[in-house]
Amino acid sequence: MRIRDLSPAEFRQRLTGDGIRLAAGPFQCRLHSGIPDIADELARLYAHHPLVDSKAFTDFHVSVQPGRGMRRWLAPQARFVVDAVEPFTPLPRNQALPMLEWGLNWCITAYSHHILVIHAASVARNGRAAILPAPPGSGKSTLCAALVNRGWRLLSDELTLIRLDTGQIMGLARPVNLKNASIDIIRAYAPDAFLTRPILDTTKGTVALMAPDQASVEAVDEWADPAWMILPRYRAGAEAALSPMGSGAAFLQLADNAMNYHVMGARGFDAVGGLVDRCRNYRFEYSRLDDAIAVFERLAGEAA
Amino acid sequence: MNLLLNAYRRPDSISLLDERQWDLLVRQARHANLLGRLFLRLQAAGVEDKIPERPHNHLLSGAVMAGEQRHAIRREARYLQEALAPAGIPVILLKGAAYVAAGLPAAQGRLFSDVDILLPKARLADAESALQLKGWVSTATDAYDQRYYRQWMHELPAMRHVFRGSALDVHHTILPPTSRLKPDASLLIEASVELGKDLPGIRTLALPDLILHSACHLFHEGEPNNLLRDLTDLDLLLRHLARDDAAWDELIERAARLQLGAPLRLALRYCHSLLETPVPGRVQARTGCLLSGNWVQRLRDAMYARVLRPQHPSTADALTPLARRALYIRAHWLRMPPHLLAYHLAHKAILPARQETHPLSTEKIELAAGAKKAA
């Protein structure tokens, strides 16, 4: 059974009751909310994710709750709670939905050192994956959203998970985090995709979450082989162009974006080294999404 | 339901757990800061292959985190030595950092948030300037906290390194000078031992003193989150000490010399009852650690039974909040004379310590660390 099989009323009831138990790639999560307003959009974002039995092991028990005391009504707040612990400063209540998403990202990052967790988007075609590590503002999420609306499979928008044994990428297929101008760009580029209402004035500016497509979610358990590491940079007016990156620079790029590299010691070093060896490493400049997609199509057509 | 203690005491019993119990066990272990230690214990007992994949991921992650801290702590010890050597002050490590540097069994899976060092009170000012010169800065920001530490406590306000972010506690003794018990810190410094060749010049307290300090800490601490973790430290330290039977007598005599018989007695009592730490008959007789005792002792047992659990909602009962409150009051009662206690609690009631939280960010995760406020 998948989230889409629940009626809106049932979804809301579970969300505010015992919690929605769902699988996002390798993780089983229990999402709870004391703020019912997020229910409808959350149900759309996770429509295709499978429900998990209530007797199953849960990796992360997360919740967003209204502020305490006066902060329930006066400049109302949302609090993120993971298993009775509140690691963050509350946010304004209208940010409850992204807070739940970002909080879940934090759980994965803070609690998963059996895998390498890279701050990067990743997408796959025919079992081969492109990793897009990039600083905020580089257009990584925009490019990722465009690719998954043109036939690429979404592995992850924010966190790329690398298995240490096979070196493969485990997908998450969770919502894509779009910021500022990219919200309207993707709306125009992929009118069929579901985007939440924009949420203004977050620390990242205006954000909207885009639902992953059904095919990506349903294929999420097929691990992909890393084939390309591509560092994207949006520059107004630029022609879409790949330029090869040396393996030293590629290593530093990945290690710098690996959230738990400093925790994993030698195993982290080996994992990053393995990735650099397996991937063709590029810098990529672009301005028009269609041109960017064409470049990725060419890559996908190349022999492994 | 205390699944954590069961699994810790009886590693074999984990083969009977169902998925929901595994779920709870991992949560309890995370709350008690014992994920890594539990993993290593199950591994050592040869039952790692009985751990299902998902809980295995979490337990392993805890052990990986602790493993990396071992390197970080050893590195940090060398930086401290570099900073303090010009002032002629030796680095004497305490608690977790000492276990790690000395390679004691109590280092296994140990997570901690700071390095603790001990130095003579007369050298405190020199040490503080030497550390500041190398980038450690004081984290207590308000005047009350600064004064609280400098006037009444056994340590400086917590320091933090500006670049590495690592936290440091500088102690001049192991209990606040206002405490009812007054161990003589110069005896501790005198008996400290130099570590072997891979950390030359760096010292730790001697094993009996490490045990007594841990016992002191456990029973003067007002904040229960790490108490069960600390009790497992004590268990591992005592089992290590017990390799030499005569060391028990030295421990008891040392406790008497340092006026720390009472905390030792409680440490032995709760280690034995909760973790089955073997305590030889003559040690039981000399310390009276297992006697059922009067109503005060029974009340204390009831309180510790509740705070020496993983502080997770699943192990709490109706009396847990009361026990936590009582622990807080008791800890302060032991640390301050009544007039000071009244003044301090009044100040904290009017201006409570702000809860330390962090802005939500998906940038680099920090190894656990938190600025310390006057408790």
Give a concise summary.
Chain A has helices at about 10-15, 40-45, 95-110, 140-150, 180-190, 215-220, 245-255, 260-280, 290-300; strands at about 20-25, 25-35, 60-65, 75-80, 90, 115-125, 130-135, 155, 160-165, 170, 175-180, 200, 205-210, 225-235, 240-245, 280-285.
List keywords for this structure.
heterodimer; A: 304 residues; alpha+beta; 2 domains; eight-stranded mixed sheet; five-stranded mixed sheet; 9 helices; 16 strands; 32% helix; 30% strand; globular; B: 375 residues; alpha/beta; Beta Polymerase, domain 2; seven-stranded mixed sheet; 16 helices; 53% helix; 6% strand; disordered C terminus
Helix and strand layout, with pairings?
The complex is a heterodimer of chains A (304) and B (375).
Chain A: H1 8-16, E1 20-24, E2 27-33, H2 39-45, E3 60-66, E4 77-82, E5 91-92, H3 96-111, E6 115-125, E7 128-133, H4 140-148, E8 153-156, E9 159-163, E10 169-170, E11 176-179, H5 181-189, E12 199-202, E13 205-210, H6 214-218, E14 225-234, E15 241-244, H7 247-257, H8 261-278, E16 280-286, H9 289-301
Parallel strand pairs in A: 2-3, 7-14, 14-16
Antiparallel strand pairs in A: 1-2, 3-4, 4-5, 6-7, 6-8, 6-9, 9-10, 11-13, 12-13, 15-16
Helix pairs in contact in A: 4-5, 7-8
Chain B: H1 3-9, H2 19-31, H3 35-44, H4 53-84, E1 92-94, H5 95-101, E2 114-118, H6 124-133, E3 136-138, H7 143-152, E4 159-161, E5 167-171, H8 185-191, E6 193-194, E7 203-204, H9 207-220, H10 227-241, H11 247-257, H12 261-275, H13 281-287, H14 295-307, H15 320-335, H16 338-350
Parallel strand pairs in B: 1-7, 2-5
Antiparallel strand pairs in B: 1-2, 3-4, 4-5, 6-7
How would you portray this structure in words?
The complex is a heterodimer of chains A (304) and B (375). Chain A has nine helices and 16 strands. Chain A has helices spanning 8-16, 39-45, 96-111, 140-148, 181-189, 214-218, 247-257, 261-278, 289-301, and strands at residues 20-24, 27-33, 60-66, 77-82, 91-92, 115-125, 128-133, 153-156, 159-163, 169-170, 176-179, 199-202, 205-210, 225-234, 241-244, 280-286. Chain A has two domains: 3-111, no CATH class; 115-301, no CATH class. The mean pLDDT of chain A is 95. Chain A is α+β, with helices and mostly antiparallel strands. In chain A, a hairpin with a 2-residue loop joins strand 6 and strand 7. With 375 residues, chain B is of the alpha/beta class. Chain B has one domain: Beta Polymerase, domain 2, CATH 3.30.460. Helices cover 53% and strands 6% of the residues of chain B. In chain B, strands 3-4-5-2-1-7-6 form a seven-stranded mixed β-sheet. In chain B, a hairpin with a 5-residue loop joins strand 4 and strand 5. The two termini of chain B are 29 Å apart. Classes of the chains: A alpha+beta (304), B alpha/beta (375). The A-B interface holds A 28, 55-59, 61, 80, 83-89, 91, 99, 102-103, 105-106, 109-114, 119, 158, 203, 259-260, 262-265, 267 and B 18-20, 22-23, 26-27, 30-31, 52, 54-58, 60-61, 64-65, 67-68, 71, 312-313, 357-360, 362-365, 367.
